[in-house]
Amino acid sequence: MSYLDQISSPTLLIDEKITRANIKRMADKAASQGKKLVPHWKTAQSHEIGNWAKEYGIKEVTASSIKLAEYLCGQGWDTIHIAFPFNIRETKKLNELAANQSLSVQIVNPITAQKLSDQLTNPVGFFIEIDAGYGRTGVHVSDFGTIKEILRIAKSSNKLKFRGFYLHPGHTYYTPDKQKIYKQSIDALIMLKTKYSSEFPDLVTRLGDTPGCAVMEDFGDVDELGPGNFVFFDLMQAELGSCSREDIAVCLAVPVVDINRERGEILIHGGGVHLAKDVLIDKDGNKNFGEVVALHENGWSLLPDRSYLKSISQEHGVIKASQSLLNQVQVGDLLGILPIHSCMTADCMGGYLSLDGQWVDHAEGCH
């Protein structure tokens, strides 16, 4: 039976071949420069896709929350890093997980460091997150007083173990000059490693975001790379130049429920609860919530003429359709939508249907 015969409502499809190619490409890039690839698993959130990643030499992963870390525990990962400023209200859960799994957390202030020093019952590593220009979170790269205080607290603890410095230059998503941002980020990490490596000879530096890791060819003396979205990519990454549309590994299959040929619009069952509400604005000022592809037995293919999702509500979506699409589509057909932000779409959908008709797990789903 075709995978298409299993679909009656919005369903997130995954192309295993494209996913594996994306993972292999990034793993090869890291290996060619002697870097360790520690992917951020907030995108895939899957045991099965994690097993694919292990085939390409990936042994550690990063989680976006302690909830995701718990889901990933017991799956054979050497270490799971929680890349979010640690929430001290979750220390009890951290202790439970650390009893059986090597974990590390992210610390951005001395208060959190002290609470963990006082309350940890099992060894836990930590990175100090550094802010070198993004401005979202982290200790400012020149705030040596805060860094010194965090390290002082950790040295007095027999459970809290310093691993190194973590930097997420998220402004590569908003600034065209990714080379400049990466040079600043790499320089910041090298400076910190030089300053603290005599005291902590085993410290490592980790740098990670998909736009930068996808386009950069030289990561200097940084030890580890931690991108996440590269596993699937999406339309935002294509717009940023991180990938081509052919590299996008997930696609939302949606049923057609009505067609208005006079307006050139197609109504689908597929909205914000399936795709989230990330949006791109095209050169003419039109909102784009996803682009239409044709579904077939072997997956999906790009259309010769652009059709896109012009608006979404909770369950509905309205496609602005090309004439060629209008000429062939019928009520009850299935169309594919390439997501703007694959991480959020996967999180909304909570599972994947492979092209051979098998369900692939997701941390938020029941499949």
From TrEMBL:
Keywords: Lyase. InterPro entries: Ala_racemase_N, D-amino_acid_metab_enzyme, D-ser_dehydrat-like_dom, D-ser_dehydrat-like_sf, PLP-binding_barrel. Coiled coil: none annotated. Residues 249-356 form the D-serine dehydratase-like domain. Transmembrane segments: none annotated. It comes from the Bacteria. The keyword Lyase applies. Belongs to the DSD1 family. This is DSD1 family PLP-dependent enzyme. It comes from Algoriphagus taiwanensis.
